[in-house]
Structures are given as C-alpha cells and as structure tokens.
Amino acid sequence: MTEYRFAGGSGGEWRVIGMTCLCGAALPPAAKLDVTTPAPGATNEANPAWVLRGVVSNVRYATGREVSELRRRQAGLGRPEARHAALIPIRKTPAWWSLAQDERRAIFEETSRHTAIGMEYLPAVARRLHHSRDLGEPFDFLTWFEFAPEDSPAFDHMLTRLRTTAEWTYVDREIDIRLERVPVTQPPAP
Amino acid sequence: MTEYRFAGGSGGEWRVIGMTCLCGAALPPAAKLDVTTPAPGATNEANPAWVLRGVVSNVRYATGREVSELRRRQAGLGRPEARHAALIPIRKTPAWWSLAQDERRAIFEETSRHTAIGMEYLPAVARRLHHSRDLGEPFDFLTWFEFAPEDSPAFDHMLTRLRTTAEWTYVDREIDIRLERVPVTQPPAP
Question: Which residues of chain A lie closer than 8 angstroms to B3, CB-CB?
C-alpha cells in the first residue's frame, strides 16, 4: 500500500489558492501543500500546519464494467497542462458506515450516480482517491484532482452536481482546497 | 476506528496451543498472545516475537439482509464457556485486490458462500474481523474466533469447508493460531 502524505504549511510544489470549508471543522490555513510518499514515521517538512495521510487501496464500489470504462477514459496525473489541482478531504457519518455494502452501493451509484457523473468529466479531470478511515485519520477519504486552469468551471460544475446527491447527505466534514503548481524556478544564466 | 494489537511473546491472557502455517511465510513461535487496544504508538509488552495490528472497520461484502441475519444469530465475545480461541491472519493475492467490487463479491458469496457457511456455525463460534491491509501490515485480515473446547471439531470443519472454496485460491498467506484462555490465578488464601 502506497501511503501519501499531504502537508499544509510553508513548503511544497503546490500553492494554496483557496480553502473552503463546506461542512464540519475547518483546517488551519496554509500557504503551500507538500505531497509526498514518505517512509513510515517520516515527516514531510518542518512544522506543517497540518498533515493528512491516505493510502491508495482497492476499489470499494465500482463494478468490473465501470472500472474498465474509467480506465479507458481517464488521463494520468502529472500532465504539463494540468497546472491546477484540488485536494478534497471528506468524512462521512456513522450512519453511512453502519450501512451494509449493498445499501452503500445503492446510494453511491444507483441513486447518486457518483461514478457516472465523474465519468462525464474525463479525461479533463484526473483523479486519485486515498483511503484514510482505517488509518484512524480525521477524514475518511482524500481525493486529489488535477486539471487545466480552463477546466476549472467544469470541475466546479461536477462538484456542485455531486454535492446535491443523496450520497452527500452522509458527508459531515468536507474541505475544498484549491491549488496551483508552483513554477519551477530556472537558475540564472551564468 | 478501534485498533487491536495482537502480540505473540511471553505474556498475555491467551496461551498458544498450536501454530500452523497453511501457506506463505510462517511467524516466529510464541508461548502466549496479548490482545490489546493500545494508544497509537504504544507497545504491548517488552520484546514480543511479533505484533499484528488491525482495525474493526465497515462491512465490505455483506448485504443488509445478511448483516441482519448475522446480528440475530451471533454470540458476543468473552463468553465464560468460550475458553478456546483462534487468530487467523490471512493475506490475499494482488489478483484478488485488482478485481472490481462486484467481481470480489461474486467469488466471496455467490460462488464460495463465505457468509452462508460461517452462519451455520453460529452462535457456537463468535467472531471479530480486523482489517489490516490499508495499515500496510503483512496480512490483509486478522480474524479472531472464540468457542467452547467441545466446539473445536465444528470450528475445524468450518475452516476445511472455507479453505476449499474458490475464494481461498486467492489466499497466499495464512497462519492458524490456536489459543486457550490462561486461567485467572486465585491469590492464596490468607
């Protein structure tokens, strides 16, 4: 399992251009975000304002057909034109987690069309999901998105649609952190 | 998330009466097992031979109907007559984890009848499942069972049935640790 660590503070290759707390407790402000895959126990940087951890794990709801379609359509992370990013930590209610697997799947997809909605924004919006709940973290998921600046309105539209679904009535903490890649500084010509 | 820690060593309230490695690498021998729910970073005891960690998490495959039936039939842990226990750490193959949710569910229940088989042994065999995969542990699951000594043959029969299912072709490491509760020592009469 690859663990990703997202440290908000004064260092990192992503500049924070906005932090919106949609529900639940906010996170302290941070100027930059450092994204790393550190060794267990390592720290990202000196004194970050906050650190969120998550692992890339197995698929929890998608069917074989949906996974194939996602793989066929989606773009990878790190595209040069994808200079904007978003980190959206989410926590769901105890009522959500006490549901059985078929009950959660029914709300997630048959009712709320989570995967189907996300699919409409591929390949413009690239995405990686990190699971945090079993790690005892304050959020259950950390979703990372990368897109070109001109696709920001489409990304906002996608979030608006998802946030009005039945699934989102089970979200009790959500923070929307918008980021811009820090340009690589060229060394001065000799 | 409650994290449970299982430490094999010289201390604890369970005496190891057998350790069988069914596939994959064995664990070092241990005389006793210490089961705790420690604070993060705490250690169970001085120098255990091994420590396995897992969290009680949400249901991954069971339907609402199956969860209701399990809750109706199952006994709790800690019954005085349940003086025998088993800890069975299991790891599944990368091929299993790369399957989509519906594909894993189909093998788990529609083909292998995992929940249905386990249900037949309720309430004699009490059970608690711990998830370890997202924690980066060497096993994916740690299952804890408690039963009366006279129910040992039924417990063995259940395991034999499960181990011959299609689901078990995806298991690449499994250790069967059998335990007996250490009698509480009475202080000598004054």
Answer: 136
Token reading at B50: 């091994």
Beta-strand runs (E) in B29-188: 32-36, 50-55, 84-92, 126-131, 141-147, 171-181
> Do the Cβ atoms of A63 and B136 come within 8 Å?
no
Closest CB to B55 among A58, A65, A134: A134
Q: Which of B88, B77, B42 is nearest to B181 (CA)?
A: B77
Task: Retrieve residue A150's tokens.
Answer: 């001109």
Can you read off the two tokens belonging to residue B32? 């006793």
Tell me the average confidence (pLDDT) per consecutive run of 10 residues in chain A, 190 residues long. 94 97 98 90 74 97 97 97 98 98 97 96 98 97 98 98 98 98 77
Joined together, the tokens standing for residue B35 give: 């089961």
Tokens (6 digits) for B27? 């664990």
Tokens of A162: 């998802």
Judged by CB atoms closer than 8 Å, whether chains meet at B134 and A135 is answered as: yes
Q: Kindly report the pTM of this predicted structure.
A: 0.92
Q: pLDDT of B28-61, one tens digit each?
A: 999 999 999 987 666 655 689 999 999 999 999 9
Across the interface, whether the CB atoms of B102 and A64 are under 8 A apart is answered yes
Q: ipTM value of the model?
A: 0.90
Report helix, strand or coil for A111.
helix
